[in-house]
Amino acid sequence: MSETELPSLTIADVQRSVTAELDRIGPVIDELGALFAEAGHELALVGGPVRDAMLGRQHNDLDFTTSARPDDTERILKKWGDGTWDMGRDFGTIGCRKGPWQVEVTTYRSETYDPASRNPDVSFGDSLAGDLVRRDFTVNAMAVRLPGREVVDLYGGVVDLATRVIRTPGTPESSFSDDPLRMMRAARFAAQLGFDVAPEVVAAMTEMADRIAIISAERVRDELVKLVTAPYPRKGLTLLVDTGLAERVLPELPALQLERDEHHRHKDVYEHTLTVLEQTMDLEKRLPGGGPDFVARFAALMHDVGKPRTRRFVDDGTVTFHHHDVVGAKLTRKRMQALKFSNADIDAVAHLVELHLRFHGYGSGEWTDSAVRRYVRDAGDQLDRLHLLTRADCTTRNRRKAERLWRTYDALEERIDRLAADEELAALRPALDGNQIMAILDLPPGRQVGEAYRFLMELRLDEGPLSEEDAEARLREWWASR
């Protein structure tokens, strides 16, 4: 999705959008505002819901800030809503649900950070202005006082929204010193909103990139996931690379900026990777669940990370990257483990990276049915994503070559569909299971049963489905010949 697709904004557009959204959520904000006022407390809609209201985006999850302490907030919300929760009580937050609405109300906060700590020391504040100045960016530091719906914009957030700029309420150096994760958040908001980041913010990110080391891997991971699944991930990833943050959190990405040989005989791997990511996004509608799909996108981002380790210059001037798929899968697994991803995500992404070149052995369609079955078997539950990655990996500007590759892959998918219809290919298992093998060969559980199962699996791949009778006969014949 290109930046040129973003509609232009004026202050008048912002004002119209926020008025329309405040009218839509009026039944909630006006009622809550009145309840807090009657109890002698201030209340304001704040942060993301205000920003998105100005962008014309609707939310049923609403964030508020208040002068009330958590106990007072809880008493008010219990009278108003269908149920409350207080997992964030230590940080001053009480949550509540009422019908389709979910609200979180947080006491004014004043946060301070120990320079060596990963977590803030939270103390309650006493004013809306003090609460807003601690927030990460001006577009998130706006509020609407309730019940009167007065817009509070102390730091120029409305102008920054209209001009599509990410900047901090105070100095970026102070903001990032307080919470270094905000540097990652700047890149994430650039990716989510399509905004540019102010030069002074970029300069501070570059100067302070080393500070990200004190942030836990889990918090970095969560920001990275949000960035990669955003509408404009190229903007965020480019910012991470240009400021040196990527070198600290995802060093495999800037490592793709390989020096070009003097004859320019290989493409820019870094730019190729970002293009593959964007082409994967364009193809996500082919997935059963649509998009955004983190696994597919991250596999696109990591698919060539093995190239820097495997690059070799041949005597004739050409460049090779032999086995970069295998090396890349190992690097991907190691990086995702360091970032504390789930085993399921690690396995899925690393598997796709390892398989992303497999299609290129298909040639012009010379694979046997046995080879097609093995392709499906090896892809397993990642077959749909492998289809996407393989297609997206074609970034040649030679239109004839690109069309030929697409036609060939179309033909492979058609063969897979045809074989699947004929053979229940998705299941892809032998005619006999382990219990049947043990009964036929009179074996206890153990290694020999596994060998017999693999023999039957190879038969299945080579010859397609067999009846149980034929499978038993072949199994007995194989066993007797051992």
From TrEMBL:
| A Pfam short name | PolyA_pol_RNAbd
Q: What SMART domains does the record tag this protein with?
A: HDc
Q: Which top-level group of life is the source organism from?
A: Bacteria
UniProt keywords (A-Z) are: ATP-binding, Magnesium, Metal-binding, Nucleotide-binding, Nucleotidyltransferase, RNA repair, RNA-binding, Transferase, tRNA processing
Family annotation (Gene3D superfamilies): Beta Polymerase, domain 2, cca-adding enzyme, domain 2
Per the record, the GO terms for biological process are:
RNA repair; tRNA processing
Co-factor requirement: Mg(2+)
Q: Where is the signal peptide?
A: none
- Gene Ontology molecular function: any one: ATP binding
InterPro entries according to UniProt:
HD/PDEase_dom, HD_domain, HDIG_dom, NT_sf, PolA_pol_head_dom, PolyA_RNA-bd, tRNA_adenylyltransferase, tRNA_CCA-adding_enzyme
Show where the HD domain sits.
269-389
Q: Which NCBIfam families match?
A: HDIG, tRNA_CCA_actino
Q: What is this protein called?
A: Poly(A) polymerase
Q: What species is this protein from?
A: Nocardioides terrae
